[in-house]
Amino acid sequence: MSTGMTTETLQLPAPAPPAPAERRRGLLRQLGVDTGYALASFPLAIVAFVVVVTGISVGAGLLVIWVGVAVLALTLVAARGLATAQRAWLPAVLRRELPRPGYRRAEGTALRRLLTPLRDAQCWLDALHALVRFPFAILAFVVTVTCWSIALGGLTYGAWDWSLPDASTDPDNEDLLELLGQESTAGRRILFYALVGLVFALLLPFAVRGVALLQALVGRALLTSRAAAQEQIDRATQGRDAAVAAEAVALRRLERDIHDGPQQHLVRLGMDLARAQRQLDRDPAAARTTLSEAGVLAREALEDLRALSRGIAPPVLADRGLAAALAALAARSPVPVELAVDLPEERLAPAVENTAYFVVSEALANVAKHSGADVCRVAVGRDGGVPEWWSRTTAPAARWPPPGTAWPASRTGCARPTACSPWTARAAARPG
Questions:
Q1: For residue 341, what are the contacts with CB-CB under 8 A and spacing of at least 6?
Q2: Does residue 309 carry a pLDDT above 70?
Q3: In which domain, by residue range, is 142 found?
Q4: Residues 271, 402: one domain?
Q5: Is residue 297 domain-shared with residue 266, that is, in the same domain?
Q6: pLDDT for 120-145, tens place per residue?
Q7: Tens-digit pLDDT profile for residues 321-334
Q8: How confident is the model at residue 389 (pLDDT cuts 50, 70, 90)?
Q9: Nearest in space to 267 (alpha carbons), one of 294, 228, 240
Q10: How many domains does the chain have?
Q11: Of 281, 308, 335, at which residue does a domain stop?
Q12: Given this model, what pLDDT does residue 390 score?
């Protein structure tokens, strides 16, 4: 009777789509955010426009007597404060987190501290935003107030129609129905304006959302784009530094391992061969013993070099690709390997190929050392666009660890093969 053990990468279930009630609440919440943003931005835009235009005009006119420098600096500081207030609205409107720019810190002498805003590019972008934003703020305010007024006024017209002059009885008064050539009565007016209000109520979320997004995108471009670019540069720099540091650590470790392992064996091997050469004529038996010890040292040095080479990608992987490298790996395995590779013609990313090679290499090494298997089957391909490797070994049941045993750490630094790559790994044992 045979038993089986299968280990598979778990896949999280897809999140359920939001319920209609949640979508409606989200739509109403976003409408409230966009409306508040359009209404609050208008007075701030007026203040920012007036302050920046006045400050730059006065500062530029007074530069000849150096007072203009202080006026320009104060103008940029004010623009920075107004831009900070605008920047606080952007995540809620755009529904995403945005980076906050870093401003120059005032340091040095009093004159140098005074000139700090003038030397800060983000302060000038804040001032430019105050000028460029103004027409968009006007547009957003007008569209928002108009749409809300017509929607609320039309839907509630029946409640206050009685308070207005009746156009049907007053020859000096005309309403919209009469201007359209229709007879005006209380019932017709209520129905007509209710329909108009309903149409504007349906269009309200989209109209307000559109103008709010337009104004917010202008703010994002001028207030956060420089910070986003700097953040990307910082991430790239950190990644490069981390890669350089990791490579340096790996090289030092490799150097130490070579010094402590193969180098010592090779030094001893050279000494033994020199001794055997001296003993060859006067004591052949001792020379044979020395040569035997030298053979043991040579095998030990070879094993150490093989162990160290596991962390270095073979040339065949870089020259001919993953399929050829795995074929060479399977040919060297002491356990017969049945290899099936189904990959596209174009090469995979180097990191993916290296990870796959070392994963299969580690698996075959474990099969050879611990499984006592008669045959090992390895399949490499794509499952739904995701690279995947799969292996199965036929081995005695006593050789397999009990369920729940932790996977040993490999030389690639991964606790499990799939922890360091987007690959899906599956391994199955079929004890005999």
A1: 322, 323, 326, 327, 379, 380, 381
A2: no
A3: 25-223
A4: no
A5: yes
A6: 888 899 999 999 999 999 999 999 99
A7: 888 888 888 887 88
A8: low
A9: 294
A10: 3
A11: 308
A12: 54
**How many angstroms separate the CA atoms of 150 and 204, rounded?**
10
Region 55-82: mean pLDDT is 90
Q: Output the pTM of the full model.
A: 0.55
Q: Within this chain, do residues 173 and 244 fall inside the same structural domain, yes or no?
A: no
Do 195 and 246 sit in the same domain of this protein?
Answer: no
The answer, yes or no, to whether residue 245 has pLDDT greater than 70, is yes
Task: For 351-383, write each residue's pLDDT tens digit.
Answer: 788 778 878 887 888 888 777 778 888 888 776
Structure tokens at 386: 């995701």
Last residue of a domain, one of 223, 241, 263: 223
Amino acid identity of residue 69, one-letter, is V
Unique residue bearing structure tokens 């193969």: 262
- Per-residue pLDDT of 152-176, as tens digits, reads 998 998 888 887 777 667 677 777 7
- Same-domain status, 258 and 213: no
Q: Residue 74 corresponds to which amino acid?
A: L
Domain presence at residue 145: yes
